[in-house]
Structures are given as structure tokens and as C-alpha cells.
Design goal:
The protein has helices at 11-16, 22-25, 57-74, and strands at 29-33, 37-43, 81-92, 100-110, 114-122, 128-140. It is α+β, with helices and mostly antiparallel strands. The chain has a single domain (11-143), classed as Thiol Ester Dehydrase, Chain A, CATH 3.10.129.
Length: 149
Amino acid sequence: MAIWKRSGFDAASLTQLQANTMSDGLGIEIVAIGEDTLTARMPVDHRTIQPHGRLHGGASVALAETVGSIAANLVLDPAESVGVGLEINANHVRPVSGGFVFATARAESLGRTTQIWSIRITDPADRLVCICRFTVAVIPAGQAKPVSA
């Protein structure tokens, strides 16, 4: 059974919601929505590598927080509450020097005031590149201030 409380969205519309944000600048796009998972991909290119030509750890964390934040908010009623990042940690396992990486978020706990998500980042061969744990604070919708264009 799907965990998503919001309806009427697809991968393309979720990607479009990220326009003019950091994730847009990094080339992050949502590529799959499962019953209890959300997957995004990010290119490993001049925007996301470090000086040694490998995927930058900060870019991996930005990818993880992006997919985790989108997923966290899809399980909430936006009229009542929003999810915002509280803490994230990452273990970088394997270097990547080109192509794409894929991040899949899966909920570990969906509490009333906090959520915990695991995000696995893999290469196209499904080898683990990075694993993250992301904690989300659930706050009343009235406390969230949307960014104006």
C-alpha cells in the first residue's frame, strides 16, 4: 500500500517543483515513485565533482536531502504540516567519476513530529556509493515560509 498522502503528482511534476533551487542547479530530477520509495538521479559532472574528478560528498548529501525532503512532504497533508530537514549524516562508500548516481529514499519512521528516512545512493550498476540517514522535523504549515520568486 502506498504511503503517499498527496495525489496527482508524477516524477516530472515533482522535478518541475524544484525549478530555480539548488537541486535544479545540480541537475537533480525525480525518476521513479514506488509504493514506499522515491528515487532521483543526479549527473556526475562539472557541477557535482570535486577537484580530483570524483563525486563531491556535499553533492551526494544535497541529493539525499532533496529526495528525502520531497518524500517527507509527500506523506504529509500540506494544509496541516510540512517537513524540514533536522539532521543528515552520510557514509561515502565508493567513488564515481562520471555518468549518474541514483538516490532512493525509504521511510524508517513516520512519526507525528519527526520522520526518519534512509537514502541509498547507487551507481548505474546498483553498487552502493553513499548511504544517508535523514531526520525531518514535522512543523505546522503556518510556520513554514515559502520562498518568493
